[in-house]
Amino acid sequence: MTGHKQPYYITTPIYYVNDKPHIGHAYTTLACDVLARFKRLDGFDVMFLTGTDEHGQKVDASAAAKGIDPQLFTDQVSQNFRDLAVHMNYSNDDFIRTTEERHKNACQALWKTLVEKGEIYLGSYDGWYSVRDEAFYGEKELIEKDGQKLAPTGAPVEWVSEPSYFFKLSEWGDRLLKFYDDNPDFIAPQSRRNEVLSFVKGGMHDLSVSRTSFKWGVPVPGNEDHVMYVWVDALTNYLTAVGYPDVDPDKLAKYWPADLHMVGKDIARFHAVYWPALLMAAGIAPPKRVFAHGWWTNEGQKISKSTGNVIDPYDLTAKYGLDQTRYFLLREVPFGNDGDFSHRSMVNRMNSELANDLGNMCQRVLSMIHKNCNAMMPNPGAFIDADQVILSKAYGMLDVVRPLFDTQAFNKGIEAIWELVGDANRYVDEMAPWGLKKTDPARMETVLYVLAEVIRHVGIMVQPLMPQSAAKILDQLVLPENQRGFEHLGPDHTLTAGTEIPKPEGVFPRYVETEDDGEKA
Ligand code: MSP
Fold first, then answer.
1. Are 338 and 296 in contact (CB under 8 A)?
2. CA angle 270, 274, 280 (to 5 degrees)
3. C-alpha dist (Å) from residue 274 to 168, 269, 355, 401
4. Does ligand 1 come within 6 angstroms of the Cβ of 19?
5. What is the Cα–Cα distance from 485 to 402, expressed in whole angstroms?
6. What is the pLDDT of residue 521?
7. What's the N-to-C CA distance of the chain in angstroms?
8. Atom nearest to 303 CA in ligand 1
C-alpha cells in the first residue's frame, strides 16, 4: 500500500476570543501537537486542526465592553491564538475562525440538513442561560450561593425568554446509549464516560439551538431574526475544516470521521452528547473518540482572572524554556486528571529528568566519543548480554510507547522513555567506558556505540514532545533529517561507524534559582 498513508484527523477545541490565551489553552493544543507529531513520524497522513470560536453572546459582550466592533475585536484576539501556536511550536495544519465564510456555509448546510430530516422545530425558550458557559441549564441543575442562583460551574445565569429553534435531542437518548455501548472507547477517560452516560440516562430535553436577543452569530437559514446557538456553530468547525459540505469531498471522505477531539473536562458534554446526536441526526458519522483532560491549578489554587493567578504560557517558556515547559505539562500529570503547576516541581523535573538524566547522559557519551574516538562514530565489536539487553529495549521502545500515546497516556509513554534513559545511565556507570580507553579500546568503542544507539532512539522518540531539543540531539549524532522517522527505529538503520561528529554542546540547561524564586518556594 505505498503512497496511501492512513489518515489521522485530530482537533483542539476552538478557543473563545474573549480573552488572551492562558495555560489551559496552551495545554489542550500541546497534547494535540504531540500526538499529531507522533502520528506523522509513525507514518500517518495527519490533519491537525485548531482555531478560534468567535461568535456568541460572550464574545459580543467582550467586544462591547471594549467599545469595539465584534469583527475587529475577534480579528485582534484570534491573532493572539495564532501567535501562541507559533510560539509554542505547534504543528497545526489549519487554523479555523468561525467568522470565516467557509464556516458560515458549513453551519448553514448542516442546519438545512437537520431541518430537512425533521430534527429541528420552532418553539420558544423560557429558562436559564449562562453567558460565561454559553450553556442552557435546567432549574434543577442550578446551585444557590448567597441567595443567588448560579450554574453548576459557579457561573452567573440569566433568565431567557425568547423564540427559539430546538433540536430534538430528547429523541436521541437511546440511540446515543447504543452508540456508547457499541463504541466503548468513544469517550475517555472512564470517569468522563460515566458522567456522560449518567447525563444521557437521566433523560434529555430538546436543545435550544438559536437565539434572537443578539445578532453576533451565523444567521439561521430562512429566518434571519435568529442566529445559531454558539455551540452548534462551534462544533461544526470540525466539519468545515475538512471541506464539508461540498467544498472538498475527497478531503471530507479522507478525514471524516475525526479520529480524536481533544477537549477539557468542562466541555465533554458538548462533544460527547450534543455533537454525536447532531451528526447522527444529520446522517453523518460521529467522531471516533473524545478525550477530556483535566484542569490545571496554580500552586494549589484554582486559576481565575479575578484572583490574578492566571498562568501565561509566554512567562513559562521565558522562565523555564519552551521544550522544558512542553515536557513538564505532559509529564507531570496523568493525562485526564487535574494537575497542579508549581515552580518547585517544574524545577525538579527540569533539573533532574532533563538536565541530569537525559542531558548529562548525552553530553557524557558524546564527549567521550569526541575525545576518545577521534570525533568519529565508534565501530562496535561483538555485543555482550548487557549490550543486547539495553539495545533491545531501545529497539522495542516504539511498541511500548505507541499504545500509550494512542490512548493519550502521555505521562506513561514519557515515563517509559525515561526508564530507558535511566538504564542507559546505569549502563554507562557499570561499563565505565572512560576506564577502557587504555585497557580495551575496542570494548570502549562497542560501549559508546551502544549508548549512541540508545541516544538515537531516545532522540527520535522525544521529537513529538520536545522538537527543538530532539533536533539538537539528533544533529549532534549527525543523523540525516530523512532518517528521523519511526520507520528508522530498530536495528535495520543503525548509526554509521566513522561518521564525524561535532563537539557536543549541552541541550538542557539547569534552572538556577533566583532570589525571587526563593521567596515563592
Ligand atoms: N469555545 C469553547 C470550545 C468550543 S469547541 C467546539 C471553549 N473555549 S475556551 O476557550 O473556554 O476553552 C478551551 C479549552 O481550554 C477547554 O478545553 C478548557 O477545558 C481548557 N481550559 C480552560 N482552562 C483550563 C485550565 N485551567 N486547565 C486546563 N484546561 C483548561 O470552551
1. yes
2. 140
3. 11, 7, 46, 33
4. no
5. 14
6. 46
7. 56
8. 26
What are the tens digits of pLDDT across the range 251-310? 999 999 999 999 999 999 999 999 999 999 999 999 999 999 999 999 888 888 778 899
DSSP 3-state of 48 = strand
pLDDT at 519: 55
Q: Atom 25, ligand 1: which residue's CA is nearest?
A: 24
Per-residue pLDDT of 212-237, as tens digits, reads 999 999 999 999 999 999 999 999 99
CA of 315 from ligand 1 middle (Å) equals: 19
Sequence-ordered alpha helix ranges (H) in 205-311: 230-235, 237-240, 249-255, 268-269, 275-282
Q: What is the pLDDT of residues 94-149, one digit of tens each?
A: 999 999 999 999 999 999 999 999 999 999 999 999 999 999 999 999 999 999 99
Distance 368 CA to ligand 1 centre (A): 47
Q: Tell me how far apart the alpha carbons of residues 338 and 293 are, in angstroms, rounded to a whole number.
A: 8
Give the amino acid at 441: P
Rounded Cα distance between 343 and 301, Å, is 13
User: Angle between the 385-395 and 397-406 helix axes, to the nearest 10 degrees?
Assistant: 30
Give the integer Cα–Cα distance in Å for 425 and 353. Answer: 12
Distance 24 CA to ligand 1 centre (A): 6
